[in-house]
Design goal:
Layout: E1 11-20, E2 27-37, E3 42-46, H1 53-60, E4 68-73, E5 76-77, H2 83-93, E6 94-98, H3 109-117, H4 126-132, H5 148-160, E7 166-170, H6 178-195, E8 198-202, E9 214-219, E10 222-228
Parallel strand pairs: 3-8, 3-9, 6-7, 7-8
Antiparallel strand pairs: 1-2, 1-4, 4-5, 9-10
Helix pairs in contact: 3-4, 3-5, 4-5, 5-6
The structure holds adenosine-5'-triphosphate.
Adenosine-5'-triphosphate binds near residues 20 and 54.
Family: Belongs to the ABC transporter superfamily. Macrolide exporter (TC 3.A.1.122) family.
GO molecular function: ATP binding; ATP hydrolysis activity; transmembrane transporter activity
Protein name: ABC transporter ATP-binding protein
Length: about 240
């Protein structure tokens, strides 16, 4: 009998596949993924280019559908969701951070974050979100007046301002030098620790694994290895 005290994981992924195209041209991006991610964990996904990391992240984020298998978010069966239900799921639960910040150049840092807080159900104030990422002194700056790392921190503030349960980050430090990347990782770790947000980071910067509770290694559309890290290090100590 199931242990009633056992909390549901944030994600329970069972036999997930994703195929692009048909026949001889088909790409089997995910070839049967089984995975559990506990709520409030910080998880890093590593693996060679084309191994399926972004494909899995996109399915977990409700941006894409699996070809077969199950993807549970707590008790919600994402694999059975309509486009409309996925859209609501994304709006209510998911913050996204990508390699490129996608800020509106004609809006200030505060206004970029307000774009999200105006349509979210229970947002934090834009100024509060920007203070959390250490940008309370840059509220009225435009993206062109900010460094790459600062722009990425605005993008993170925008993602967390709607108080998401889940923060999905695809190459968040990909466009940054290592020192600046470290400040961004520190913010992600802080969001995880202070807000309890489940954070998933896809990256090529293997040293990022040191700050994770759990590291998932991909190869050829499969999970090669999952490593639990009993003692994640503070992001500021990471060197790559
Ligand atoms: N929309 C698509 N149409 C066709 N093939 C796709 C599509 N998206 C991804 N693929 C293919 O699926 C496979 C997995 O891609 P995915 O982007 O998930 O890999 P990744 O591990 O995130 O790679 P990277 O580290 O380079 O971002 C690759 O072979 C890729 O070319």
């Amino acid at each position: 009998m199931a242990d009633k005290q056992q909390p549901l994981p944030a994600f329970n992924v069972i036999g997930l596949t994703r195929q692009y195209g048909e026949g001889a041209a088909a790409v089997h991006a995910l070839q049967g993924i089984d995975l559990q991610i506990p709520a409030s964990a910080l998880v890093v996904l590593l693996g060679p280019s084309g191994s399926g990391k972004s494909t899995l992240l996109n399915i977990m984020g409700g941006l894409d559908h699996a070809s077969s298998g199950e993807c549970w978010f707590f008790d919600q069966a994402l694999h059975q969701f309509s486009e409309k239900a996925l859209s609501l799921y994304r709006r209510q639960n998911v913050g996204f951070v990508f390699q490129f910040y996608n800020l509106m150049p004609s809006l200030t840092a505060r206004e970029n974050v307000e774009l999200v807080t105006e349509i979210a159900d229970s947002p934090m104030a834009a100024d509060e979100a920007l203070a959390l990422v250490g940008l309370d002194h840059r509220l009225d700056h435009f993206p062109a007046q900010l460094s790459g790392g600062e722009q990425q921190r605005v993008a993170i503030a925008r993602a967390i301002a709607k108080n998401p349960t889940l923060l999905l980050c695809d190459e968040p430090t990909g466009a940054l030098d290592s020192a600046t990347g470290r400040t961004v990782l520190k913010v992600l770790q802080q969001v995880n620790q202070q807000l309890g947000t489940t954070v998933l980071i896809v990256t090529h910067a293997a040293a990022t694994a040191e700050m994770a509770d759990r590291v998932i290694h991909f190869a050829d559309g499969k999970i090669r290895e999952v490593i639990e890290n009993p003692a994640p290090v503070p992001a500021e100590q990471i060197v790559w």
